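User: Please run a holo structure prediction.
Assistant: Happy to. Please share the sequence and the ligand.
User: Here you go; the ligand is magnesium ion.
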Amino acid sequence: MRLGIDLDGVVADFNEGWMRRYNEQHGTELTPDLVDHWNAMISLTHFEDVGEFWEWAREWPHPRLFRDLPVVKGAKDSLDRLSRDHDIVIITTKPPWANHDTFAWIADNELPTSEVHITERKWLVDCDIYLDDGPHNLEALVVERPDRTICRFIQPWNDPVPGTVDVDSWETFETLVNQRWC
Ligand SMILES: [Mg+2]
C-alpha cells in the first residue's frame, strides 16, 4: 500500500525544535506540553502574527529550523518496519524557503522513502492510507479522498474529525496498517 505520511507533528517534533531555539534566544522556558491549539506559537511568544513567527524561523542561521527538528518517538522505527511491505510517501507543507532543509532532514534521519511531496494540496497525492495531525488537512482529505483511510495523529492541537480514524501512537498506526493489509 501507499502510506501518505505528514512530517511536522507526526514524524518531526516541530514544537520541540522551535521552542529550543526560542528559549535559547529569549531566556524563556517554553515546553511542548503548552501547545494546545493550532498556531499556538503566537499566544506563547511575543510574535504578533504567524507571519512574524515564520520570518524569525526563516532567518535562523545554520542549521536552520527545519534541518534541526527532533524525530517523534517511535516514528523512525515504525517507518522502517512499514517500509518493508509498503511505500512510504512523505506529504508535507512547508514555506518555500524550507524545501532544501526538509529534503536534507529526511536524508539526515534516513527516512525510508523514495517519494516526497511538499504541497498544501495533500489530497492530490494518491495514497491508500494517510496520517496527519493538521485539522485543515484532515478535513480536506475526508472530502477529497472519501474512499481512503485517513488517520488523525492525536495531538493536543487537534480534535476528532468525522471520517477519520484516531491514532494515538506509531504503534497503533502500525497495527492499523497491518490490519487493513491482511
Ligand atoms: Mg503536521
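The mean pLDDT is 96.
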